[in-house]
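Can't attach files on this board, so I'm pasting raw text. These are the components:
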Amino acid sequence: MILWLLTMWVCLAGPVSEGAEVMDEGRLDDAIALWEPVADGGSGVLLYNLGLAWHLKGDAGRALAYWRTAGELRPRDGNIHHNLAVARSELEGAVPPPVPPAMGWMGILSVTELGLVGLLLTGLGSGGALLWRRRRSASMGAMVLVLFAGGLSAGGLATAGWRARNPVVVVVADSAVARDAADVRAGVRFSFPLGSELSELQASGAFVLVEDGEGRRGWVPRTAVFHAGG
Amino acid sequence: MIRMLLAAVWLLSVGVPAFAGRAQLNVDVDRFAVGQTGRLVLSVVDDRPHPDAVKAVEVPDGLVLTYRGNKSNFRSNGAKISQVYSFEYSLSAMEEGAFTIGPFEVPTTGGGTLTTNLLDVEVLARPEVDGGPDLQVKADFETGEVYEGQVVLYRYELTARVPVVGVQWHLPEFDGLRQPQHGDPWSTNYRIDDIDGRIYVDRGAVPLIAVAQGERKQGGALAEVRVPVGRQNVFGFSQHQVQHLPTPETTLRVKPLPEAPDGFSGLIGNFEVRSTLDKSTVGVGESVEWTVHLSGDGAVEGFTLPSLPDTDGLRVYESEVALRGRTDESSYMSMLTVRRVLVPTAEGKLELPNLQVVAFSPTEHRYVTHEIRLGTLDVRPGTGAGVADVESFSTEPDLEALPPEAVLGPSLRELYTWGFSRTIQLGAALPLLLGLVGAPGALVLLLEGRDRVAKARARRAAVEAARPPTTAEVLAQLPTDPAARLAGLDGALRLAIAQHIGVEVVHLDRPAAIAGLGEPLSGRLSELVQALDRARFAGQPAGRDLEEEVRQAIRALEAS
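---
Top answer:
C-alpha cells for the assembled complex are below.
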C-alpha cells in the first residue's frame, strides 16, 4: 500500500503532470521546455506528450519523431498508433513508407519488456536449479532447463533487438536532399519530403546516412532530420 | 428454400441486362514485319457471345486470321466482377501496308449485337537478317527535353530471339523525377511468331513528373532474365542461366516554366475541360448536379477546381472529387471529375458565372486558359419543400452541423496527465543482468553436468574392467617366469579357440572344439596342446619354440 502510494505520488508530482497542466493553459512552449530536457531517456508517456505538443505547434516532423520513439517504448499504446496515423495522413507529397521496427516482435513488445521476461524466466530457472540440486526430481529438472533456456533466449533476443535497432529520424525540413556522400558537393540522389520516417544508419560530420521504408539510402544534412530521445 | 433459390435465379437473370455488355478487339502488337504472327483477341464483357461470334472478325487482304480457341474468365476491378469471354486468333502479316481491322458486330445469345472498336495495324517490310545478339534491351525517355512539372514516360523494352522466362526489370533511381500519385506504370509481354524464330518481347512504361530543373542524368535500367541452357531433361525441364542486361545511361533536360500569369492552376500538360449540368430547368430549393471533367497528359494531383464566385440566389455544395491516372505504352492520361450540387434559392433566370483554369501547354510552350461555361438556369417555383428545409445535397457532411473537432478531421488522442517521466531501459545492461541472474543456475547446471560426466566415466570403466581379456591382451601380458609363461600361452590358446567357436572360455570343451575345426588345423592344434601339456605338467623339454607356435596357431585360428 505504501509502495503504491509512493508510486502514485511520484507519477502525479512528476514533470509529466506538471507539463500537462502548463499545456492545458495553452503554453505549449513552456510545456516543451519542461519536457525536452528529460526526453533523452524519458518515458513513453512523456515522449507521447511531447509529440502532441509539437503537433499542436504545427511541426509534424518533430511530432512524428516523438511518437515513433514513444511507440518503441510503448508498442501496444493505441493512442500513439492513432496519433501517428492521423499525423501521417496529414502529410503532403510522396512520403515514403515509414521504416519498420528492426525486428518484428518490436511491434508487440519493447526491448525492456522482452528483457524483463528473459530476466524473470532466467531467475526462475536459476532458483529452480538450486532447489533441484537438493530435491532431485526428473520433472523439475526438465522444467528448470525449459525456464533457463526460455529466459536466456528471450534475453538474447532482446539484446539482439537492442543492438539491431537504428534510431528513427524524421525529416523536419520541407525536404531533405539525399546525396551520394556526406558532402554538399556530392551528387543528389533524391529528396525526402517533410515527415519521412527514416532509419539512421551512420553519421559523418554534418550528415547522417539514412534509409527509408523502401530501402533507399542517402546522406542527408543532420539539420534536416530530427531524432527524439528515448 | 426452393422458393428463395428460384427467386435468386430470377433476380440474377433479370439483373444481368442491367450490366451493359461490350466487345473489345485487342492485338499484342500493332506493328509487324511481313512474315510475323501475333495474337488478336476478341473479348466480350458482361454479355454472352453467340457461338457465331467467332466468325465476326474478318481481316483485310494482306493479313491472315486463324482461329486458335476461346476461354472465359472473371475480372474484378474492385467494385464489380465481370465475366469475360475471349476468342483468340493468330494474326499473320503477309504484305506491307497499313490495315484497319473492325469495327465488327458481335452477336450475343440474347439476340442483340455488340460493336467492337477499330484496330490499326501496320505491316513493315521484312528487315534484313541482322545477325544481332539474341537478347536486346533498350530504355529511354519518350523525349529528351521537358518542362518542370511535365509528365514524361520512361520506356524500356527487352527483345529476345531465345525463349526467356522470369524477366525482371530494375529501373534506376530517377534523379529529379518522381511518379505521379495516380496512374500505375504500364507493362506487357508477348511473343511474335517469326519465320526466323519466335521473338519474345517484354516492355513497359513508367510515368514520371520532372520535379527538378537542369540536365538530369539517369542511370541505366537493368533487365534480369533467365535463359535456358543445354538440352531438356527427360521431364522436359531445362537448366536456366540468369543474365543481366544493362541499358545505357540517359539524360533528360528539364526546362523551367516561363513566368506564370495570375491564376495559374499549376496544371502542366495538354488538358481538356468539359462541364455539364444535369438539367437546365429547376425548382427553387431543388438540386442541379454540375460535373466538370478535366483530362490531359499532365498530372492533376494537387489541383483544385476554383470555387464559383458568390452568386445571389445560388448555393453550391461540394459533392465528389475523383482522380484517376492511366498509363499505356505511348501516353499518360490523368482524369479529374468534380461534382458539385447547385441549389437555386430564388425564382427567375439565373446566370451562372464562368470559371477559368489556366494551364501550361508544353507542346504550345505557353499558358493556355480553359473557360468553363455553366450557362443559365431557369428557376421555377419550388415544390413547396422550401430552401429552409434543404439540409444538404452533398455526400459530404454538413460542416456547420458538426462539432468543430469533426470538421477538423480525425482528432488526436488526449494528453497523458500523469505517469513516470523516466523509465528504466534494460537494453545495454541486459547481457550483464542476464549473467548475474543466470549465474547461480548455470553453476548448478555446470556442477550437475560435471557429476554426470564423472559418473558416466566410472560406469564405463567398470564395464571395461568386467570384460574378459582378448588373446592379444593375454599374449601382450605374458609373465617372465617360464612355468607361468607356459600357463599364459595355454590360456591364450584356449581363449582363441573359444572365441573362434563362439563360446565362453569356461564352457569350452577343448578336445571336442579342436576336433571340430577340421584338418589340418585340428591336428596341428592337438599336437601343440599335447606339447604344451608335456612341457607344463611333465616337465619334458619341448625342444622347439612353443611360444612362437602358439602365436602362429592363434593367427591361423583368427584367419580361418
